[in-house]
Amino acid sequence: MSDAFFSEVTGRIPYAGLDSTDPLAFKVYQPDRLVLGKRMEDHLRVAVCLWHSFNWPGSDVFGVGTFDRPWLDARLDPLVAARAKLDAAFEFLAKLGVPYFCFHDRDVAPEGKTWADTQRTLETVIDQIAGRMEQTGVRLLWGTANLFSHPRYAAGAATNPDPEVVAVAAAQVRSMLDATKRLGGENYVLWGGREGYETLLNTDLAQEETQHARFLAMVAEHKHRIGFKGMLLIEPKPQEPTKHQYDYDVATVRGFLERHDLAGEFRLNLEANHATLAGHSFHHEVAAAIAAGLFGSIDANRGDYQNGWDTDQFPNSVDELALALYEIVRSGGFGSGGFNLDTKLRRQSLDRTDLFHAHIGAIDTLARSLLVAAALIEDGELERLRAERYVGWSGDLGRSILKGDAALELLSVRVLSGDIDPRPVSGRQEMLENVVNRAIWSVDRAELAAIGTPVGAAGRG
């Protein structure tokens, strides 16, 4: 295992348990631990993103990069820099011990002077990625094309008013979809960061929707043409960098896909911070996607409650993630999706080793959230109470309404006669919230029991 870039981490991150104070050890995450009869690693399917962790220098709009990232040195030859970046990334992935990674084309291969130059660079780097995947056993959860950074995409990619820009975007997606298939990627993501508007004064909404639909149809057509078996995933976000993004949230994307007969071709990649920017909880967006049959994969992160932008911080709240995981696990879990840590360090976390601290904490949070979700499922009380609330729909009246046998007139007659006279029933929200908290708190007891430590002995020196 190479130590060229992360020499402070001498081997694979171990599991050490809740009592460990080792900052470079997992406290909860055990890949082979069985949860509801399935390995923890197979439930979570954790991936690391290459963009924030290996292609961002720690800059922001007010200041230059702060991170120690020698592979981002602007003086390096582009191919030398690309090779060093991959060396650093796969050393990190191997030592962290996660099964997957995700990347954009421009994370690993910068644009050249011509499209032919760009393609040659991408193909060279894809060869190198394939070699490193074979060496480490790390797999590709999903690939994607960066259709938002280059100035040509300032007015959008698929929704750009210039069809020549749309053509370049199409060529870029084709290349990256081909590369994703070649690398055995399990999904392909489309995030329309520039598919929206800054002002309606120069925007033809109907024209741009038509363009967007046709572009996505071309992507689906190419997927079938090349025999790519993975899922195509759309990632909703309400705004930023645009004032308004067309893929606003789950409900918006669902309506768009159904309107353009694309619902059978695409599912959704949901990001926690995007959900909160849209005014929803992450729990809501996950539940909405599952209910619509559109759930695909997750970008796991969080926003800052004080800020109204996409801060992409590492997840650290079991309370929030446990509810999302409850919905995912009770619906059957991931298919080809997983939890991609679309997360970035704070600018003052300067050291390379900070990447390990951040990812270890996030993965432990996911693992603990999974245990809470499993406890809720095994207990069954939430499911029982939810089913009980809708039990009337399995009776004669409920069935007749859903089957279409009860018209407004018939129902009106029964209400007028007094045959139907309902009384309010408590939703018991606070009790349900207590059920969730009980599961969160009881995980400590389950953990201690699993390692054979008496509950009363916990915390003794």
Radius of gyration (CA) equals 24 Å
The CATH architecture of the largest domain comes to Alpha-Beta Barrel
Helix content: 40-55%
**What is the CATH H-level superfamily of the largest domain?**
Divalent-metal-dependent TIM barrel enzymes
By secondary-structure content and strand pairing, the structural class works out as alpha/beta
Determine the N-to-C terminus distance: 35 Å
The largest sheet is:
8 strands, parallel, barrel
**Uncertain spans, ≥5 residues at pLDDT below 50?**
451-461
CATH class descriptor name of the largest domain:
Alpha Beta
Number of domains: 2
| Strand neighbour order, sheet with most strands | 3-4-5-6-8-10-11-12
Estimate what percentage of residues fall within beta strands.
Answer: 5-15%
Overall outline: globular
Main features:
two-stranded antiparallel sheet, 12 strands, 461 residues, 2 domains, 16 helices, 8-stranded parallel β-barrel, TIM Barrel, single chain, alpha/beta, globular
